Amino acid sequence: MINSRNLGELLPAVKARAEAFIAECKRQGIEVLITSTYRDHESQAALYAQGRTEPGSKVTNAKPGQSWHNWRVAFDFVPIVNGKAQWGDAALFKRCGAIAESVGLEWAGRWKSFPEMAHCQFTGGLMLADFQAGKTLEAIA
Could you give the CA distance from residue 35 to residue 62 in angstroms, rounded to a whole number? Predict the structure, then answer.
């Protein structure tokens, strides 16, 4: 199973924006930790099972192949203060979300259905169906 935290696992256009996000957060005095980048289908299946057929709370509505992480165009993060993850600090996530948007990322904290404060992505306007049909971000810088 692969559930990476490595920015190198992202497509180049996404990696560049993720690096810009981290740098701008740092410039604004916010430390962020990348918690997930690429996930293979097996890892996505395990996350999808959580809260359904496995113990724990539901953390995703995406089945394997339906997560942006499976296509190397998304990452999750958490702000860090004094060495501790700030999962419950909505205001800090909103600051990070604004920074993400300023560098060309989509911040999932604005999603109407299943908002995810810790999720950013860059799809270049492509939809999941486009990736599933074989389209790529190769032509997008």
Answer: 17
